[in-house]
Recover the amino acids of this structure.
């Protein structure tokens, strides 16, 4: 299933699972409260990550709702994307696990339904 079309402003994209159509994640470019600084919010069922620095290509990737480009720009911009499968999967289909380093959370990794492992979020 293809991702939903982004908003008219091209500042938000909603991604749905290829297996069952469930919400896999949203990526939104928003202005901060002061209207000066923009932020990129990546929201998945298990986490929300905000980036205050991102490359210009993000806007075009959001306009096209392109998870492959978002992932290529930064893997954490599309934690729902499996680059090996070239597919979006929802929370129900990622086998997620945390990796600790000396007792501290280091990253969240996942294994997609086809068995490909990748870092989902740092």
């Amino acid at each position: 299933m293809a991702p939903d079309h982004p908003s008219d402003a091209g500042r938000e994209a909603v991604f749905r699972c290829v297996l069952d159509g469930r919400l896999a994640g949203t990526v939104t470019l928003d202005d901060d409260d002061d209207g000066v600084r923009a932020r990129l919010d990546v929201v998945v069922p298990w986490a929300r990550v905000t980036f205050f620095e991102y490359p210009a290509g993000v806007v075009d990737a959001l306009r096209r709702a392109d998870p492959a480009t978002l992932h290529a720009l930064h893997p954490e911009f599309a934690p729902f994307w499996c680059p090996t499968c070239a597919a979006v999967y929802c929370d129900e289909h990622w086998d997620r696990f945390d990796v600790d380093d000396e007792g501290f959370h280091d990253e969240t990794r996942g294994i997609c339904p086809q068995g490909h492992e990748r870092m989902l979020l740092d």
Summary: The chain has a mean pLDDT of 88. The longest strand covers residues 23-31. The longest helix spans residues 57-63.
